[in-house]
Amino acid sequence: MAKKEMQDKKGIAEILYMQGEQGKDIAERLGISTTTVSQWVKQNQWQERRAANNINRQEIVNKCLVSIDKLLEKFRSKEDPDIGEYTSVADMVIKMSNAIEKLDKKNSIVDIMNTFSGFLNWLKARLSIDPELTPEILKTIAKYQDLYINEKLTSNA
Fold first, then answer.
1. Which end of the chain has the smaller Cβ count within 10 Å, N or C?
2. Euclidean distance between CA atoms 120 and 53, whole angstroms
3. What ranges do the domains of the chain cover?
């Protein structure tokens, strides 16, 4: 297979993977081996990037709130909790509340990531209807978005 053709397939595979496709389905669709797709995923850290695109601040906050609710519900169901249980539950609620507060203070970078993710998804949807848009352009945009986010994260650390 020609190098250009393989690079094109790699670009398409990346887009499909970021959209949630499984490696075996990508391989079958593009006529390449699952080993090749797995290598691309590992070498280019697609799994980490996909996870970063799929998890947002609001989802984490909601999970913390659900955990607090479950914790309090479990505590309320006890007939006669001792002082140690009160202290333990209060400590866990405080820790989760602090995590939520920190997420709210740091939401600017998360908001940027969500915006970038939404923009890339919009571009991916246009890929089939916009002849000027190519997988290479998407990769370049994603590269510079990642650089921007990394620089923001290291400058705020």
1. C
2. 10
3. 8-54+109-156, 57-105
